[in-house]
């Protein structure tokens, strides 16, 4: 006997009087009535509603009139059917009645009916009020209802969970509203629906299509949908999206705590609800982390909570001070760090049959899990957790800390794929954190080296009042090679130096130290600024040749530098300077006007073969000099001239001291996030009291030596420095005698009272004296040795017109 679904068409013969005269087996299968029940009865008894006018007599107007008619089933239910009436004639043409065929509405041939019923996709049809008209077996399994249970019921009554969206933050429209929209507008729709089926602890993702079903005149009679479970593909895509976000969001800065915070923020809330990152203190300090072998399972481990982020706003932690945390022996975190393996904890028990209650299409088979995972730990529920993945932070074989990924309110259990995602995120962050740690260590080393090479305090001298600042680049930038110096010179003069080495890092700091030492050495020779830069240029060229790689695979070190060298004489109030590719200083008069510096910077050091130009300025007492490196005035938003104008305005700010003005200028010129280091040296010029300088022209005759001694003794006593008379007399006698004997006229003796008592003898000869040790019976050769023994310093200063021999005696404080 063919089943119900093998007889989709019923046929009944109706006589002219409207009585049933014939009944097919299809009729019985469709409506449940037998031939004995219906033959001889009015056909209208089979109708639920009153028949159309003339039914079956005159039913329709065409040769095969068709209509949608609800029929009465024997059990009292209604069968919606498509009814067609065909006139029946005898051989004489006399009307014998009608043959009426009925088909369940929506039915197709048997093979099509079976295809739709057995389709693995969920299929359904609903009237415009969203009442169920038909669903296939797959749809019944998805909604956990049979077709008989839902026919005639409204969609919202059967599936109320589809009236809300699982992810309100995405502004998704509930699926039921989408069905109603298609029924109202007649426009088809395609979407991905994420929902949690009844009895499941995991959200499923379904690809669905909704379209209107129209009659011959285009009116919407119903809406239909189909869908298939694409949970595995959907959640795999979500994991890829999180990994893609992590690629651009983790490791953006070379900061350990900042990178830890990026790791904590990225997986929330798309993957988990709470992330904590614990790091060893050595990692935070940029030191080498402890070895994995040091984390024995029975040892309490002390770390610092570097970052924590939760889906709840009040639990967020901004980057800042860390808090200490401990992991007890035997804890999951301690075991993970000791073994180097991750652990997944679940608060749920396994489902029936020992299988995990994961969503369809996901890696639910325990064979997908690494050994020892997952672990059922009902105690984590006491902390409000439904699951937790603990992953050790490992990078290049070093253990940096541990990360915990936790789910709070969501019932979804972690899968083996989730563990892979957590480990991928942690591995990416571990490399970034280790890079930040290494950078922090190198930066700290470079800063320590650079600060040790810079002057710890500026030397005491009377020519200028000085203040300085050096600021390294921000945490995202390497240490540069900026430097400054203040060097006391002979004749109460002072040298002001500022420079910048090309490149960053340890190499730049070491090169800066070499150049600063070279400048000090050359300054002791009392070279003019342009000659000093020429010698410094040669030194940089030699350094460049030393840095040439021994093999083609060895990287080449960066070379090159800029330098400004200026010498101020408080006696003449003259400033002489030369620049090797360095910005010229700002010179501000006591009245506040800017004094132009009539010189062009020469080429940077390391070019070679090009001259340096020097210039001289006479400055009024109290002039302000601002020497700086380009890091102070460079900006992406403004050009250099605008920034120099801003620096000039900043120098006009009232300040109680030069130190305070230095701080004001730095605050005004440097942003919080700077990419280069900067140095600033401010100097306020002083003029030496003319009464503290005495000079005398010496005739080139040894008979003038006693007169020179008397001139010196009288002047020293006039200054109240009687205790220095004896040494001054000997020094003047020796220097003047040597100038008369070995020098060229004119000869001049000059005494300067500054922080020390300075004696200078000048002549036009370029021949410099040399200190030597006289033999036992030599009559000469002991003079300069006595000068060196009796004074605190002596030397030769070459000028364009000859040379000057000088020596200095230290004066008691307050004299």
Walk me through the structure:
This protein is an alpha+beta fold. Helix content is 28%, strand content 27%. Strands 13-12-11-17-16-14-15 form a seven-stranded mixed beta sheet, with helices on both faces. A five-stranded antiparallel beta sheet has the order 2-1-5-4-3. The radius of gyration is 49 Å and the shape is rod-shaped. The protein starts with 8 loop residues before the first strand and ends in a 5-residue tail after the last strand.
Shape: rod-shaped
- Strand order, main sheet: write it out: 13-12-11-17-16-14-15
The radius of gyration over CA amounts to: 49 Å
Q: Give the class from helix and strand content and strand pairing.
A: alpha+beta
Give a quick account of the main beta sheet: strands, pairing sense, barrel closure.
7 strands, mixed
**What is the residue-mean pLDDT, rounded to a whole number?**
81
- How many separate helices? 19
Helical percentage: 25-40%
Distance between the termini: 133 Å
Strand tally is 32
Low-confidence segments: 1-7, 57-64, 314-318, 350-365, 553-557, 773-781
Strand residues, percent: 25-35%
């Amino acid at each position: 006997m063919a089943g119900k679904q093998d007889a989709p068409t019923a046929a009944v013969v109706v006589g002219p009087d409207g009585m049933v005269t014939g009944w097919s087996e299809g009729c019985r299968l469709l409506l449940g009535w037998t031939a004995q029940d219906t033959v001889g009865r009015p056909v209208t008894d089979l109708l639920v509603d009153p028949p159309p006018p003339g039914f079956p007599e005159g039913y329709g107007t065409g040769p095969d009139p068709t209509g949608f008619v609800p029929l009465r089933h024997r059990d009292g239910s209604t069968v919606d059917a498509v009814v067609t009436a065909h006139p029946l004639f005898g051989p004489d043409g006399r009307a014998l009645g009608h043959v009426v065929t009925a088909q369940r509405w929506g039915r197709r041939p048997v093979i099509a009916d079976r295809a739709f019923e057995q389709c693995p996709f969920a299929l359904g049809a609903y009237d415009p009020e969203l009442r169920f008209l038909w669903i296939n077996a797959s749809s019944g399994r998805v909604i956990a209802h049979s077709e008989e249970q839902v026919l005639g019921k409204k969609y919202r009554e059967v599936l109320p969970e589809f009236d809300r969206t699982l992810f309100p933050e995405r502004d998704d429209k509930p699926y039921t509203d989408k069905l109603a929209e298609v029924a109202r507008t007649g426009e088809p729709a395609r979407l991905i629906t994420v929902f949690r089926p009844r009895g499941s602890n995991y959200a499923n993702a379904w690809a669905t299509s909704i379209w209107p079903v129209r009659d011959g005149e285009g009116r919407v009679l119903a809406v239909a949908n189909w869908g298939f479970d694409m949970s595995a593909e959907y959640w795999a895509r979500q994991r890829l999206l999180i990994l893609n976000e992590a690629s651009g969001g983790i490791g953006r800065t070379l900061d350990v705590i900042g990178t830890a915070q990026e790791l904590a923020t990225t997986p929330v809330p798309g993957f988990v609800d709470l992330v904590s990152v614990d790091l060893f203190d050595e990692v935070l300090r940029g030191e080498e982390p402890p070895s994995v072998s040091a984390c024995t399972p029975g040892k309490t481990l002390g770390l610092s909570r570097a970052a924590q982020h939760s889906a709840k706003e009040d639990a967020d932690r901004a980057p800042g001070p860390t808090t200490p945390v401990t992991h007890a022996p035997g804890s999951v975190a301690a075991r993970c760090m000791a073994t180097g393996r991750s652990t997944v904890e679940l608060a749920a028990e396994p489902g029936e049959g020992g299988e995990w209650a994961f969503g369809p299409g996901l890696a639910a088979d325990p064979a997908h899990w690494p050994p020892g995972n997952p672990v059922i730990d009902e105690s984590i529920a006491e902390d409000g957790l439904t699951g937790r993945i603990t992953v050790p932070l490992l990078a290049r074989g070093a253990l940096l800390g541990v990360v915990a990924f936790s789910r709070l309110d969501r019932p979804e259990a972690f899968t083996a794929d989730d563990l892979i995602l957590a480990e991928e995120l942690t591995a990416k962050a571990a490399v970034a954190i280790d890079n930040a740690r290494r950078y922090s260590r190198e930066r700290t080393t470079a800063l320590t080296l650079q600060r040790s090479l810079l002057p710890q305090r500026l030397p005491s001298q009377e020519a200028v009042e000085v203040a300085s600042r050096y600021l390294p680049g921000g945490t995202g930038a390497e240490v540069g090679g900026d430097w400054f110096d203040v060097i006391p010179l002979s004749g109460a003069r002072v040298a002001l130096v500022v420079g910048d080495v090309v490149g960053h890092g340890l190499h730049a700091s070491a090169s800066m130290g070499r150049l600063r030492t070279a400048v000090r050495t050359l300054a002791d020779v009392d070279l003019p600024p342009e000659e000093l830069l020429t010698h410094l240029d040669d030194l940089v060229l030699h350094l460049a040749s030393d840095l040439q790689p021994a093999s083609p695979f060895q990287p080449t070190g960066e070379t090159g530098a800029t330098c400004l060298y200026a010498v101020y004489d408080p006696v003449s109030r003259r400033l002489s300077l030369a620049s090797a590719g360095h910005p010229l200083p700002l010179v501000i008069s006591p009245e506040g006007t800017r004094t132009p510096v009539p010189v062009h910077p020469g080429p940077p050091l390391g070019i070679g073969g090009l001259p340096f130009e020097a210039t001289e300025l006479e400055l009024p007492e109290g002039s302000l000099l601002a020497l700086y490196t380009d890091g102070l005035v460079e900006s992406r938003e403004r050009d250099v001239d605008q920034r120099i104008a801003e620096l000039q305005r900043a120098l006009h700010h009232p300040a109680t001291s030069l130190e305070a003005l230095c701080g004001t200028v730095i605050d005004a010129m440097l942003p919080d996030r700077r990419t280069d280091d900067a140095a600033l040296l401010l100097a306020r010029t002083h003029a030496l009291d003319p009464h503290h300088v005495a000079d005398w022209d010496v005739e080139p005759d040894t008979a003038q030596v006693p007169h020179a001694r008397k001139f010196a003794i009288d002047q020293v006593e006039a200054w109240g420095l009687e205790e220095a008379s004896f040494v001054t007399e000997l020094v003047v006698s020796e220097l003047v005698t040597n100038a008369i004997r070995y020098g060229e006229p004119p000869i001049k003796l000059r005494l300067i009272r500054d922080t020390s008592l300075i004696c200078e003898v000048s002549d036009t000869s370029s021949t410099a004296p040399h200190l030597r040790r006289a033999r036992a019976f030599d009559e000469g050769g002991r003079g300069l040795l006595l000068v060196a023994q009796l004074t605190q310093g002596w030397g030769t200063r070459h000028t364009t017109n000859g040379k000057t021999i000088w020596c200095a005696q230290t004066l008691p404080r307050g004299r």
